[in-house]
Amino acid sequence: MNTDDRVEKQLNELKEKIYYHNYRYYVLNRPEITDYEYDMLYRKLQELEQQHPELITADSPTQRIGGTPLPYFDQYKHSIPLLSLSNAFSYDEVRDFDLRVKKSLGVTEKIEYVCELKIDGLAVSLVYDNGRFIVGATRGDGFVGENITQNLRTIHEIPLRLTEDVSIEVRGEAYMSHKSFNEINTQRSQSSAEPFANPRNAAAGSLRQLDPKITASRKLKIFVYGSSTNEGFSDHYSLMQYLITLGFVINKNSRLCKSFDEVVNYCKEWETLKNELDYDIDGVVIKVNRFDYQSILGNTAKSPRWAIAYKFAPEEVPTTILDIVLNVGRTGVITPVAILQPVQIGGVLVSRATLHNQDEIIRKNVNIGDKVLVRRAGEVIPEVASLVQPKDKPDFFIIPETCPVCKSTLSRVEGESAIKCVNITCPAQIKAKISHFASRDAMNIEGMGEALVENLVDNENLAGPLFAGLSDRKLVNLISDIYYLNEYDLLSLKGMGRQSVENILKSINRSKNAGLARLIYGLGIDLVGKQTAEILAEHYRTMDNFLNASYDDLCQIEGIGPKVGKSIEDTVRKESFVKEIKRLRDKNVKMTAEETVKQQTLNNKSFVVTGTLQKYSRTQISQLIINNGGKVTSIVSKNTDYLVVGESPGSKYDKAKELNVKIINEQEFEALLAKST
């Protein structure tokens, strides 16, 4: 055996020892050696690899932290969708779930469920090839996430190499412990950085760092809760025990429950014990244990029918309102926010809570100085729930008549609870619009965070004598101004170095190809969310078609109601909106939808959908029809080719029969699709 072979053998033996002790420490929680002995093994491996860099492998324990920050994250398409879960907010709703499962399976006997704590973190997918970790990604929209492999490698509980050379994809929840969260926030406060709001936000922000060294410093953890495939196993519980043997960390508090009553007892137990944990949970995930039952039950477009999340009732804690401030949103809506005497809720220090609007303030009769109960709605957003003690008479905070930022007169939206600043040049609105446009679900401009947006709009941080006298020159007043920024503009801002500027400009340029759906969503049309923007992009295909849409045309589209149609028509007719589109077009921002293959069978066919579908949401079936060349409307007429019916169809069914429109169910619709391929 030559020297190189001996060194390689020694390296492999060291790695095997470290893999073994990692498994004992992170998975079994039963270490066999001291921390010092482990450190000596690790140092020996480091020294050998430094002497022989050509023998370093990607799965080496020393290679968890990559050396080069990424300019941006690539997209990653999940091989099997990473679906979200339906929620239950009471035990009656959990019982309804149990009854639905039994009815769908046609059984009367008790069903076995696996109950798992619902970790409040970030869902991720981990892909292994022949036992080696090769890709890690976020959930994203369930179909496409972000490739964050470099950052996930820094989590010590994620094995870089499994105990068996298997190819497998597992799903888990990355999270931050309370201990790490408090340590990081203490450090951030000492360095004058803004503390994180809660551990979930801290974990999500840490995983989306372009520099993995920052992620590594945040000490994230993970619990694996399943696999995208279950071949070779009859049930979920057995699969989880196998994943432990491969080296994955599974939450030890999971339990196999033999009946509905055991499920309820588990939920009650952890609703009481949740605050004793060193990490946040916001409920219990309840899964049908048997895989053959899961297969029969199947999935809806959004979630599996064989699982549900029981959400704990939000904890309410007393505190005092010290002040009430007003936030201005991107559409000008004023949101009153209570500044609180800081209080711990579920392991998170809460100092601000939403009051929603003036009507809610009046209903709750709250004012500055009041003692109130505060809760984290959905275990995330803090809100003022009620007074600790009711008052004898009305004494509530009244929102002032002028905008807190631009001092314009505020206006009440007719028929709504919203109070708005109608000044479209209000700096607060501009900042919110820019942030929304640059957000991940919109144009996804990496690096354009809150601080940079503040600087671009305010121009209060111009750097150095070279830029003296330019403080009145606003860099960004409109969304389209983003694409007119240059290196000189960005270098004029304090804290912006050449590398940062180069990365921002690359990200801005890359966002030009985001496509029509993201662009429509990013433009921030009132009432147009992400899914609505996708429907509009698929229907109209080009920005010109969208701009020429009439109210009647919009209301014909499935999923676009009268309010949304009116909001869109009012917006696209505005001269300022048309001007924005022209300026964006001049900078080559993509104004078309992604190309889809039009299938012949549905070409120019008109569909209406009614009733509750089993396999599809309205949005999903509408997109399927549009993607295959058809059109979707909400009104049955003599021009309608097909009415797709689900359970409990409404008056559209009668209208279709009257007009002799062809009526089909889901199976017949799928057969129609299959015919077109």
What is the secondary structure topology, with strand pairs?
Blueprint: H1 3-27, H2 35-51, E1 75-77, E2 87-88, H3 91-105, E3 113-119, E4 122-129, E5 132-138, E6 144-146, H4 149-152, E7 168-175, H5 178-190, H6 199-207, H7 212-217, E8 221-227, H8 236-246, E9 255-257, H9 260-273, E10 281-288, H10 291-297, E11 307-311, E12 316-328, E13 334-345, E14 348-354, H11 358-364, E15 371-377, E16 381-387, E17 410-412, E18 419-421, H12 427-438, H13 450-458, H14 487-491, H15 498-511, H16 516-522, H17 530-540, H18 543-547, H19 551-555, H20 562-572, H21 575-586, E19 606-610, H22 618-627, E20 631-632, E21 642-645, H23 651-658, E22 662-664, H24 666-675
Parallel strand pairs: 2-11, 19-20, 19-21, 21-22
Antiparallel strand pairs: 1-6, 3-9, 3-10, 4-5, 4-7, 7-8, 10-11, 12-13, 12-15, 13-14, 15-16, 17-18
Helix pairs in contact: 1-2, 12-13, 16-17, 17-22
What does this molecule look like?
By secondary structure, this protein is of the alpha+beta class. The protein folds into six domains: 3-63, Helix hairpin bin (Helix Hairpins, Orthogonal Bundle); 87-311, DNA ligase/mRNA capping enzyme (D-amino Acid Aminotransferase, Chain A, domain 1, 2-Layer Sandwich), CATH 3.30.470.30; 316-419, Beta Barrel (OB fold (Dihydrolipoamide Acetyltransferase, E2P)); 427-511, 5' to 3' exonuclease, C-terminal subdomain (DNA polymerase, domain 1, Orthogonal Bundle); 516-586, 5' to 3' exonuclease, C-terminal subdomain (DNA polymerase, domain 1, Orthogonal Bundle), CATH 1.10.150; 600-675, BRCT domain (Rossmann fold), CATH 3.40.50. The chain has 24 helices and 22 strands. The strands form six sheets. It has a five-stranded mixed β-sheet with strand order 2-11-10-3-9. A five-stranded antiparallel β-sheet has the order 14-13-12-15-16. α17 (530-540) runs parallel beside α22 (618-627). It is globular, with a radius of gyration of 28 Å. The chain starts with a helix and ends with a helix. The model is unreliable at 461-471 (pLDDT under 50).
